[in-house]
Amino acid sequence: MLVVAEDVITRADDSSAAVRLLEALTAPGRKGTAQPASAQANALLDRALTAYTEPHAIANVAKLIRKRSADDHARAENASRVEIAALLTEADKAIEPLSILFHLGEAASTARRLGISDLEQQAVARLQSAPPVRWRTIEAEINLPPLFVNTFMRPFRYAKGWREALSVWFATEAPSGNHASNEATARKALNETVFRRVARVTIYGHHNLPKKVISSDDDAYTHELARIEQYAMDCYGGLLANALDLTRARFSIPTQADLETFILGSGTHPALARRLAQALRLYWVGEYAACVHLAAPKVEAAARALLLELNEPVYRTAVGDAAGQFPGLGVFLDHLVNNGFDPDWERFLRTFLLSEGRNVRNFVAHGFMDDPDRHTAALTLRACAVMALITSEATAQRDSADVRAALAKPLHGKPRRSSWQRVMDAARAAYLELRR
């Protein structure tokens, strides 16, 4: 085995074969003692680290060295450094910006995982200054059936006043669509597209920096589901924006006081009613960025208020030097689901606001939301409204069952509108056709 391993390594032949041979040769004996040939095998293993040039081959050898170097930290660290250096070298050799980004991202994440901080900083610095990628966008025009669109807009065309129009707008369904139907569509899309199930996908975020790697079936399914939901939001966001624009055109912009009084009629917490009214007025004057920045954080505030009404133990108490604080929106949504929150609305809020989807909440909080369009503003208002309208005044003492009933039916039990169902069905069918 030693002779065969040495021959394979000398010729820099199949690295997987070399690793398997050396793994067997360096394995501990039955009583934990080293095999007679382990010293020679370890020497071969160290040779193999420099015999191969491909990053994946070096990674396999380095992994085995770390496995066999529990008592030799310097040897294990050297193997890790060689593995990271190979990725940096690949970035140096690459010409295409996307390839450069990929190798630098791999180097940074590998260095972080292995605890090599100086090489991590080097890789991240190079990643941040890498040449920009010229992304290409695939555009497709989807024409929703005019009959469905006209049916959706009819109540806004014939409303007798802005209060009636807003009442209808506040009763529209979750813009991401029906959760169960979206799940079925995601499974169908993955089953019809084998490439999506076997390929490793890297998602890039702001400044061309790698955000997430999707490699497992579960990750692929979660990503596909979020894509379908965002596609539905794109279709439905336009309808919501058109409805608000038509309301303004027909009735002009209501005063702040009138809007607050109208929203307070549902029993909403006064602070949330005030901010929702302000956000609506900002939308109607075309200040979409201000509208989004005001309305998005209030979704989390409303979720927190509902959980406090239920007396859910969500507050994280102080421990040592760590200050006590409330967790983020993602944790709140998990607790709301445990209390019967409508899954359609939970998925809309999660996909629209959190990192697995549009990530609007974090973009607003960290200054990445520069110039939102009217569709994004309308969707943010819808997210804010659905949560704000089921909160209650600070003086109100609702029974837990009443709060859970509001969570289960955020639209107060109003029936689903057939036009909404047809628009979403058409959107899902168009999405599957695009994926094919």
From TrEMBL:
It comes from the Bacteria. This is DUF4209 domain-containing protein.
